[in-house]
Specification:
alpha+beta, Methyltransferase, Cobalt-precorrin-4 Transmethylase, Domain 2, Heat Shock Protein 90, 4 domains, six-stranded mixed beta sheet, four-stranded mixed beta sheet
Length: 492
Amino acid sequence: MKNLEAAQLHSIIAKGEGQLVEFKRKFTDGIAKGMVAFANSSGGQILIGVDDDHSIVPVFDSNALRAQIRDLADNCDPPISFDLAIVVGVCVVYVYEGTQKPYSCKDGYYRRNGASSRKMKRDELIQMLHQSAVVSFEETLCPELSLKMLDPQLLRDLKHRCIKQNDMSDSDFLVNLGFAVPGPESLRFRQVAALFLMREPHMLLPQVGIQCLWFAGKERVEILDQKEFRSGLVVSIEGAMHWLVNHMDRAIKVQPNQLEHQVISEFPTEALRELLINAVVHRDYHVRGAMIQVCLFADRLEIVNPGGLVAHLQAEDFGKLSASRNPLLREIFHRMHWIERAGSGIPRVNALFTQGGLVAPTFSFAGCFQVTARRIALPVGGDPVKMSEIMGGDPVNIGEIEEGDPVSTTYWEGDDPVNDAELRKGWLLHLISKKRVRRRPDAMEILQISDVTAKRYLQDLTSRGYIHFQGAPRTGGYELTLVGQEQLETIP
């Protein structure tokens, strides 16, 4: 605690008691309640020697007083960290926010509520235990779950993925993996067993599942397609991954004088798989009102899972330190060889995006954990917007190429130069077919072209009969015609 000047202390007293300040006329054992309340909240100061009317009733600094306060702090469970100073006759006890919540004294658990220290209710205590990762959801017992509710095929598949020799009995496997504990008559199952081995775990755990949504534009307004995957975690991850890959843009890379072609996805599939598994492993399963969401917009991909950073992990530690809200889930996926346990997942994702010429995804932690990856335009038959082989190997932003300049690239069949304007119109037609471009501003942003150019391209495609505008002027958008669909199929 930094030195507190007399003027600062008088200013604090004048403002009165509040979320961070409590007055005590003299020392009593009841001060322990305030210490516990501040440790369970955001920290605060107990001013011993200040009456309710803000008047100072001086206390005298002594070894006995300091020892009494230390004993109170040490007898809390766990012990509480604090600093102490005597300023103009007031004993200032600064209590730090605890890192091992919840804290209790002999009278129970308390937390700060405005200007008072209030005893915590059962639900508040449970929530704090969950937030502090003292009790992980996966490891709590699930009384409703029995062996007959587990899917035999999911159990066989998991055994095959986790152990080399499949001669272990089902009961031994479940206990060995941490899915169950022996009971007096039968196995007692943990929540993790429902997550992995129930065909419909949402019947017991309504928060379990991955919801995939494809939106027409950049906002959560018009849904083009949606699907929920609510089986065991492994099946749900594989289903969501398949859905996402099918809804991503892909291009065909045709090399000259070669029969085979390469399919290029706008996002590296290995990185997407890592992000999906990360969402499943680290989500907060205590939050019962929300599933993991995979949202595909015209300009971005978002993966959102309930729960921010793991307790005690700071934003600057993200991607560097390995920590998990659900350590048993992480251990199982590690045994399946789906993840590592070295905190290497996020750096690997960033590396895969960078290797593909893409901007690395961004991460936010406010309230929920969200990954955002920006989409790029994939030319039909070509490479992403950032083409490393255009113009002698130099990366070129497609918005900086002068209209009409020939672009020489081996990403089209043969080595003939391709007029850039026609190339971008082909991309635009493709983007309209995928509903990533519905109006002129969409084309301007994704293709990085001016308003005049976007207007001219759309008018040209309309005049050729490839597209038409459907709906009201302010809410409608461009759609492909049958002629446009036929034209799109002719592009390599």
